[in-house]
Each structure stands twice: as C-alpha cells, then as structure tokens.
C-alpha cells in the first residue's frame, strides 16, 4: 500500500439529512500538507525539520495511553490465562473481544463521542481487508504455536520491530537514524535471552510463525496509516468498522475447525454458568479498553514504538509470572529482561529527543 493509497473521503455536510445518521465531514486534504506520520524520521525528499511529527495531543496524553496500554495488556494476558482454564474456546473468545469492541464503540457513538466519516466503496474495502488481516494474524499465531515451542515463538515475535522498519523503508521510503536502529537491538536480544528455552520447530511451523510476525507488523503499520493518514479515523470509529467483521470471521473460523460444535456441547452440558458468562463478559470489556489504548498509542507514539512496547510487555509478563506463580527465572533470563528494559529506555530517550528537535 502506497503512502497516499487510501483515498480520502468526500467532504459532506455535517447536518443530518432526512433523519439519517449524522456524518462528520473529513478535513480537506491539501497537496502539501504533512500527514501525521510519526514513523518518518527521514522522509524521502522531505526534510525532518519541515514535518509535523508531534501529534496535537500533549506528551502527557501519550504517556497516559502508553501506561494504560501496558497495564491493560498485562492484565488481559493473565485474565486470558484464567479464563481459558474454564472456557477453552480461543476463537469464540476472540469473537467476544472483537464483538465487545463493536458494542463498546457503538455505545460511544450513540452518546455522541464521535461521528462517522462517510467512506467511499474503496475505503470500505480497505476496512474489510483490515479486519481480515486482524483475524488472519491471530489464526497464524495459533496455528504456528502447535508446530513450534513457546520460546521459539516468542523469540520470533521479538523480531516484529525489525519487520516494521522494513515495511516503512520499502513501502513508505522512511528511514531512521542509525542510533534508533542500534537501540532496537538490545530490546530484541533481551527478549531472546529472557525467553530462552527449548527451541523446537518444524519447517512448516517456522514458515507460519514468520508469516505471523510479518502480518503482525503489517497490521500495526496499517492501523497507524488509517489513523494518521488522510482519513485520520479516531480509534473508536476504526474499532466500530473493524469489530463486527472480525467477530464474524472469528466465529466462522471456529465453525470450520469444529470449536463451535464443542462450544454447543459445552452449553448443552450446563457448563456455561452465569459466573462464566460474567467472567467472559469482563474479559471482553477489558479487551475493548486495551484495543482503544492500543490504537491510540499507535496513533500518538507510532507503530514502531508500539512493537517495542509489545516486546517489553513480554519481559514484564515473565517477571509477574515469577511473582504470581513462582515461575523460575534463570540468570540468563534475568539478564535478558534487564537488557530489554535498558534498550526500551534508550529507545524512548531517542524518540523524545528526535521529536523535541522536530518541534524546534
């Protein structure tokens, strides 16, 4: 997808017509107006000094969403672990997550917190493909986990920042300062050491894992482009448009692999108690909050920063697992965690200095 591939919406009146749902007019696009491209430290023919790399929101807002992303991401990881023990239906749970995103964003729409942007047929197709990418990314991750060991899966996922950089370089002609590249290395190496264990994989498992990592990087970049490109969609609208499609796709996949039949047997046996319904509902609510925080963090801090955060989250998960379940941490694992955290701090300081210089 080229940088300006997604066509901008046609400007329309903000007044309701014949009682139909009110749409917001998109901001008019001007040929030489810079987009909110947070990833372009060096943007081809455009100089960094002439680009608006800092979003309109304050740094405080960015830090708040980053903190919320970390907190809810860690919480949902352990919440999922608890839920899956009594509700072993990952694809139906994924449908609950995406369905919750649709319901939650619909509620915000009803109360007037955002308005829908009128899209062209091509833009609707883009959102459908985005929902398919979202579902396919999960499918690849689940399929590959059955063919590779968990440590190998984690170390492959740690390379997501590398593929994010490659996508920006090859597709959008964006390049980073050498010091940014260097700061990412200790993060990836640290995650590798922190998750070091029994590496096992089949040829097909390696291929599927690699495809899953590439899809995850593409999904993160596409999310950023949808929210900072010409349309500049708010997180809630993006979730509203993507959520129902992804929920239906997840349910269809659960039918194809036989999981839905197992779920019906689970219900008929009386195992779906009110307590489990409330537990799964709470899980969906937390997932909705995480999706909002994730999308907003992507918009404010950038796709690369989000992949770095995901790597650091892996390390923090190991630390919390050691406290909560007495999971042993070897000296090598501990050194990896410290290395990754140090790399994350280094990367953050570089980003802050880069944006400070850009804002003059």
UniProtKB/TrEMBL annotation:
Query: Sugar phosphate transporter domain location, by residue?
Result: 63-348
Q: Where in the cell is it found?
A: Endoplasmic reticulum membrane
Give the keywords, sorted: Membrane, Transmembrane, Transmembrane helix
On whether Transmembrane is a keyword of this UniProt record, the answer is yes
Q: What membrane topology term does the record carry? A: Multi-pass membrane protein
Q: Does the keyword Transmembrane helix apply?
A: yes
Main localization (coarse): endoplasmic reticulum
The terms describing its cellular component in GO are: endoplasmic reticulum membrane
Q: Which Pfam families match?
A: TPT
Q: Where are the transmembrane segments?
A: 62-79, 91-114, 126-148, 154-171, 176-193, 199-218, 238-257, 277-293, 300-325, 331-350
Enumerate the InterPro entries for this protein: Sugar_P_trans_dom, TPT_transporter
Q: What is the documented function of this protein?
A: Involved in the import of GDP-mannose from the cytoplasm into the Golgi lumen.
Q: Which family does it belong to?
A: Belongs to the TPT transporter family. SLC35D subfamily.
Quaternary form? Homooligomer.
Please identify the protein, giving its name as recorded: Sugar phosphate transporter domain-containing protein
């Amino acid at each position: 997808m080229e940088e300006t591939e997604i066509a901008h919406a046609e400007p329309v009146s903000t007044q309701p017509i014949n009682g139909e749902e009110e749409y917001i007019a998109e901001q008019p696009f001007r040929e030489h107006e810079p987009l909110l491209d947070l990833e372009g430290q060096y943007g081809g023919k455009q100089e960094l000094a002439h680009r608006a790399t800092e979003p309109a929101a304050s740094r405080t807002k960015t830090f708040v969403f980053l903190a919320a992303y970390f907190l809810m991401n860690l919480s949902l990881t352990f919440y999922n672990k608890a839920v899956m023990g009594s509700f072993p239906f990952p694809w139906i749970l994924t449908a609950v997550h995406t369905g919750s995103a649709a319901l939650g964003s619909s509620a915000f729409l009803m109360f007037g917190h955002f308005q829908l942007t009128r899209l062209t047929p091509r833009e609707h197709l883009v959102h459908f493909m985005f929902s398919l990418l979202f579902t396919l990314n999960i499918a690849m991750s689940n399929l590959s986990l059955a063919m590779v060991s968990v440590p190998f899966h984690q170390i492959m996922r740690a390379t997501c920042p590398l593929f994010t950089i490659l996508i920006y370089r090859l597709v959008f002609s964006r390049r980073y300062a050498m010091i940014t590249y260097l700061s990412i290395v200790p993060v990836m190496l640290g995650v590798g050491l922190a998750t070091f264990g029994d590496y096992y994989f089949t040829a097909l498992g390696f291929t599927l894992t690699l495809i899953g990592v590439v899809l995850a990087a593409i999904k993160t970049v596409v999310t950023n482009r949808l929210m900072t490109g010409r349309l500049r969609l708010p997180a809630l609208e993006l979730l509203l448009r993507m959520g129902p499609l992804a929920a239906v796709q997840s349910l269809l996949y659960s039918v194809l692999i036989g999981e839905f039949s197992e779920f019906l047997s689970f219900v008929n046996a009386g195992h779906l108690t009110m307590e489990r319904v409330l537990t799964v509902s709470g899980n969906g609510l937390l997932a909705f909050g995480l999706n909002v925080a994730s999308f907003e963090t992507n918009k404010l801090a950038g796709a690369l920063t989000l992949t770095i955060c995901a790597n650091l989250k892996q390390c923090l998960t190991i630390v919390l697992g050691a406290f909560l379940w007495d999971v042993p941490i070897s000296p090598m694992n501990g050194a990896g965690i410290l290395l990754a955290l140090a790399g994350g701090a280094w990367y953050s300081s570089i980003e802050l200095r880069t944006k400070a210089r850009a804002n003059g």
